[in-house]
Task: structure prediction
Amino acid sequence: MSRAGEGTGTPGPLLAQPLRPPTPGRAVAYIGLFLLGAVMAAAGALVQAAWFPGGLLLALLGAVGAFLGGAYATRSRGGAMAPAAGWIVTVILLTSARPEGDFLFGAGGGSYLFLFGGMALAVICATLGAGRQPRLGSARLGK
Result:
């Protein structure tokens, strides 16, 4: 049995290709997107509680903008995962209580909508974000 792409000069399936580290420019972009996600989480945590229904919507739309913007800017799903990871790490760190008893998130429904809604939107944007597209000029892969 012959494998796909074996002996034809064409590479096999994308998942069969060896992993390569990102280029330095792409790595810097991912770090910047991670920090953007962290800033969006901190700003969203403050805004969603201040102006409840509109602030929650604004915070979630800002997070979605960062996730999808990263995906389209880097033309990869990793571009959506970097701000999503920064957002999730920051939100989880902000939910913990400090020794003084201070905390940023209250026990209201808006806080839970921000936490779980943002995590769900991060997964959705990373899944549906701009995936790899073939670099061919034709819309059909066989041509």
